[in-house]
Amino acid sequence: MARTQNFIGQSLPFLDAVERASRAAPLNRPVLVIGERGTGKELIAERLHHLSGRWAGPLVTMNCAALPENLIEAELFGHEAGAFTGAAKTRKGRFEEADGGTLFLDELATLSSPAQDRLLRAVEYGEVTRIGASRPVKVDVRIVAATNEHLPRLTDEGKFRADLLDRLSFEVVTLPPLRLRQGDVSLLAEHFGRRMASELEWGGWPGFSKTAMIALETYGWPGNVRELRNVVERAVYRWDSPETPISAIQFDPFASPWSLGAPAVAASAAAVGAPAAEFDPGDNVPAAAAPGIETNDFRAAVHSYGRAILEQALKANRFNQRATAAALSLSYDQLRHALKRHKLMDSEPA
Prior knowledge:
By secondary structure, this protein is α/β, with parallel strands linked by helices. The chain has helices spanning 12-24, 41-50, 69-77, 94-97, 113-125, 151-156, 162-168, 184-199, 210-218, 224-238, 264-269, 298-316, 321-327, 332-341, and strands at residues 31-34, 59-63, 102-106, 127-128, 137-138, 142-147, 171-174.
């Protein structure tokens, strides 16, 4: 299956990490790749493999967190027929499958203590013993391991073997989170946006509006590049006007006025490109309309308060009327009626 993602970025922290991986690639030594989820650890592992002398050999990937603890050793080292219940026939482990190539161990920190012990022996002596076997098998494998944990701290806490860490950390490539890659968010957003527009067979690429791009650039991206790709592709496919710049961004796909247990206004505010905390209907409300403030004209105060809520909601939702209606738990027709009543139908972004 062909890769659909490549390295894209121009920030110095990102380029430094890629350069470090490229320099280590030709060496037949273990490499640790450290980074938050979604930063591209598997892409670095692929780069290390394809730029090495092992490029023609297999690249075998194993997610150490994806298997129950009692199956990890069998998956890594293989087993003989009858070695345990369910082992109907002899099976090679990932080490033997990767012979002559590279074994990428993702989520390394989740390995159990027994699995760490056996991994250390495999790395030190270049041999593995299948579960239920009496003789070891020689293997020629380069290890690339990845984690989002701080392994030296786990070693201090007795949760990870210090000697195994020493053996695996010939080189350590630390990937920067997207929030620290200055200039890369807009670059990646344009890349993913253009690709999605092409997939949808749009006639061209309208780009993002200024407010949408600001929202993308100022968001924290806890899921890093993987999250950015989802957000951008979702925004493109939901956009109904391919001729105009995309201005509606939903960071949280679960945000909805109908989310179970979620406040309607807060949930839907997050769906239009602004954190829910940024929308507070009480902000900038005229003093005469604020609760607790005396007024001698009740109707005028209520009118002023209602207009202020509408203005603030429109602004928070980038003047998208359907999003504003959802944020205020109104139907689209109800919002339009309220806007007409308060003479806000022609409201435009400042």
